[in-house]
Every structure is written in structure tokens, then in C-alpha cells.
Amino acid sequence: MVEMGELRVDWKPRLPKRKDVGIGVIGAGFVAMDYHLPGYVKAGFRVLAVADLREEAAKAAQDQFGIPEAFSDYRRILEMPEVEIVDILTPRAGRLQIVKDAAAAGKHIMSQKPLATTYAEARRMVEAAEAAGVRMGVHLHYRWLPAYRGAWILLRQNQIGQPLLMFHHMVGNQDTAYFSDERRRWNADLDDFLLVEWGAHQFDFLRFWAAQRPERVFASTTRAPDQHFRSDMLATAVVEFAGGVRGVLLMNQVERGPDGRMDFRIEGSAGVINGSSYVHLEVGRAGEGMRKVILGIPRVWMDMVNLTYVGTMSEMLWALEEDRDPTNSARDVLDSVAMCEAAVRSALERRPVDIGEIEGGG
Fold first, then answer.
1. Cα separations (Å) of 248 from 166, 193, 243, 244, 275?
2. Could you tell me the pTM of the whole model?
3. Domains and CATH numbers, the chain
């Protein structure tokens, strides 16, 4: 029997003992400038170089964050012996070659999500890293968002027994927000934005919570008549996991109302977890009422967001220190990539798609 009252959960990333590991960043776009680099600097990580095809972008990152070297050719970073981790923050198109080059240079690798468009391409990245004997991880920072990581911790503590049904409801308007921002407008040209570029987070945290292998995905999408994006921007998806857990995603990124939301509910054999707006969490059991979970959120919103990217990189730094794969390893994330690809195929062909079909190249 769980006691009534507030419950505290420590969601914040565990900072590594060693912060002097050299990091080279490839890509100086919106994600690097607004999310990764501010977090790395605050955490005291040692960023030694940045590269971007746009020389002015690399120089801007260098000036803003005090990075010693800036290049227009990422291969210059690979030539730096003091760089141990290459952080690939470019869009996924063309990423495979960068991964191969970094692995051949003996660099450990972090990659922005989604790792790849297809399972086959992601597997080639993983194989290149493993053949070179280097570690590779993926920046799936939703695993470190306060309510999402808090829910994972509660599940590991067996607070609600065996998870049975996971429901996530996302409502926003990236169709307008991203299209209006020159730095992010390129997303509007993606055929698979909702199920892959965004779905990389959604499918991954379902799997993260379930702690089971996915077996089957059924997805259906539609679009608003006046939307900007090429991709359908409304979707539903159902995921079946091998151990019996079921996951449901409702995704809307062309909202016309005033009440955007990121809500979730995890039904278990002995209780329930509710989360909302990234930072609110509660847990309860029948006959006991709901208990608020105290997360200790930073007062400045972007400090919280930046800290989640510190979490993904910290996990890689700990992995190197402890000579193990990171928990967000590219090998682990292959299942999430397969789920995204299965969702795309399911929506196109209007049928459930087995994960084995994706993994087998069918």
C-alpha cells in the first residue's frame, strides 16, 4: 500500500564526473543554437569545434558560445585528435555519410533525432559505429523531460504495477509556427514530418515507458485543407508491444483552437499515472486518490528545455566513463526507427504493419 501525500521524483540528469571530454558539433542551425549549445555551456561541457556548410553560421556559433574552432567542412573536426565525441546536429538527409566518416576517424557519435528515415539506413549507421568500435547515441531528449522521465521512474518503482495502456495526446500548431520561422521552414517540405520528424519522440517514449519490444503499428493520418506542410499534420496511431502493453497516440500539429496540450495517461494493473505540459505529474491507486509528484522545475522555461539536452549528452559521457553503451544508444533506438517507418507504411497502405516486416526489409 502506497502512502498518501506528495511524492518527490528526481528527474534531472546525472552530470558526469569528467566534463573535459572534447566535443565537436556538426551543424549550427536552430536546434544547436537554441537547445544543445546553451545547455552544454551551462553544464560546463568542453565544446572544441563547430562546423556548418554555411561559414557564417559556424562563425556565429563560435562567437556566441566561445568555441575555439569553426569550420565549413565537418571533416576538419574529424582531424582534431582532442575531439572524442562528434555531435551530429544536421537534418537526417546526408547523415549516414557523416556517421561513416566519424566512425572511421575513431570518434564516438551523438546524433540528432530522428536517427534516419528508414530502419535499413539506421542499421547501417549502427553497423558502421560498431565495426569501428565507437559508441553511438541519439538525442531523444523527451526521455529527460521532467514529466516523461518522472513517469519512467514511477514505472520502475512499480508505483502502478504492470503498465497496460499508454495514451498520449499532442495538440499544437507547428504548421504555422515552423512555417513562419525561416530557420525551421525546411520541415514543411518533408513528406513524413508528423510520423517521423515528430514521431521519433512519440514512438520512442512509448517504448521507453513500456520497456517492451514493439510488435505492430497501425496509423492513420489526415490533413487540414489550408495547412502549409506537405506532410499530413493530424494522426492517430496504435502500437502493440510484445509483453501486452498497448500505446495510443493522438497527434495534431495544425490546431485551430486556443488550448494546445501535451497530455498523457498510463493505466497500470494497480494504478494510473497522469502527466501534462511536460512538467506536471500525478500518480494514484483506486481508493487512495491522486498524489501530486514534485519534480522541482527550473523557474526559467528554457533552462528546463536545455537541461534535457544536457541529459542526452551526459548519458554518453557516463557511458564512456563506465565503458558501456549509453541507454539512448543508436542500437537501442533501432526499434523506435522501425516503429516510425511502420507507421508511415501503415498510413499509406491503410493496414497494420508488423515490425518484423520493417526489420526484414519487406
1. 6, 19, 16, 13, 15
2. 0.95
3. 22-141 (3.40.50.720), 143-298+329-359 (3.30.360.10)
